[in-house]
Write a structure and sequence with these properties.
Antibiotic biosynthesis monooxygenase; alpha+beta; Alpha-Beta Plaits; monooxygenase activity; ABM_dom; single chain; oxidoreductase; 33% strand
Length: 112
């Protein structure tokens, strides 16, 4: 499997940037993360996501949604809301969420 960024889409669309620092004990986090990935993938307006974590522990996930309605459906999903509560209570030392409209998008991929 080759590593690829999420492709460029026809703007406008939304991006939700979730930056976080996890707590030392993140027991259960990988299982819930896998479930959240299953749920969001069922959202017809979900375009994809990218995640990275620095060696120092800063995590950044950028999720892309076609429109505000798609993002609202994700935000209001009951399992997602329960995961957010668990995150605030146990898994995160801190986080920020930024939502923005993408006005321009293009990409490049080397052939071969």
């Amino acid at each position: 499997m080759s590593l690829q960024p999420v492709p460029a889409f026809e703007p406008p669309y939304l991006m939700a940037v979730f930056s976080n620092v996890r707590a030392d004990d993140d027991s259960g986090y990988p299982q819930v993360l896998a479930r959240m990935n299953e749920i969001v993938a069922q959202n017809p307006g979900f375009l994809g996501h990218e995640s990275a974590r620095t060696p120092g522990g800063l995590g950044i996930t950028v999720a892309y949604f076609r429109d505000h309605e798609s993002l609202r459906v994700w935000r209001e999903d009951l399992e997602h809301q329960a995961a957010m509560e668990k995150g605030r209570a146990d898994w995160y030392e801190s986080y920020t969420l930024h939502v923005a409209t993408v006005e321009r998008s293009h990409g490049f991929a080397r052939n071969g």
